[in-house]
């Protein structure tokens, strides 16, 4: 049975100085793979950072819990792969993995034992001798993704994981998410509507820091485009046109 996670938001307000970035009154949604959608500046990254406890709200709260009602603690239960994955510039990928595994698991060689499946699945071995500054954006993302899986989170949060990936790498990452969804839940922020329609079972759409729509893919398509049989791509296109009008 796939793990079900519930995201609950209550009167959430988050601001950067005088700029209000989020203002979400109420939301409760359950799922296994969440799609977090919206145009640039809609508040997606801010919501992710708030879920992780990296930003303190001025008001309200966002809580995440499992099907047993156990509330998630970010440091224990979540992993995060940012849009621009950071890898230490002047040390090798292998030394970075060892450092992270020593901190997280108390075992510098964890990536060679329990974590080796992710090193292999994400093709990290050819990168081990490279320094962080020598990696492409996609390679940095693969390293951070592998480390995220090695932390064995209940909820893995991805910010634009498919950005810049070719068709092969996109399909490979989709396959990994499909394989892993029996063990953990995902929240994925992405502009790739075609991908998110295929893998998500719950959708959250933000607009200007507020909640525009949420529910299943079909429910969100009906809300945004007026028809359940529209694709998520078409529904978001209708949404963006309504914003621009």
Question: Could you explain the architecture of this structure?
Answer:
By secondary structure, this protein is of the alpha/beta class. It has two domains: 132 residues, P-loop containing nucleotide triphosphate hydrolases (Rossmann fold, 3-Layer(aba) Sandwich); 68 residues. 36% of the residues lie in helices and 26% in strands. A six-stranded mixed sheet has the order 5-6-7-3-8-9, sandwiched between helices. β1 and β2 form a beta hairpin. The N and C termini lie far apart (44 Å). 37% of the residues are buried. The model has no long low-confidence stretch (mean pLDDT 89).
Structural class: alpha/beta
CATH architecture grouping of the largest domain: 3-Layer(aba) Sandwich
Quaternary organisation of the protein chains: single chain
The total tally of domains equals 2
Q: What helical percentage do the residues reach?
A: 25-40%
CATH fold title of the largest domain? Rossmann fold
First and last CA, distance: 44 Å
Global mean pLDDT: 89
Number of helices: 9
Judging from the principal axes of the Cα atoms, what is the shape? globular
What's the arrangement of strands in the largest beta sheet? 5-6-7-3-8-9
CATH superfamily of the largest domain: P-loop containing nucleotide triphosphate hydrolases
The proportion of strand residues reads 25-35%
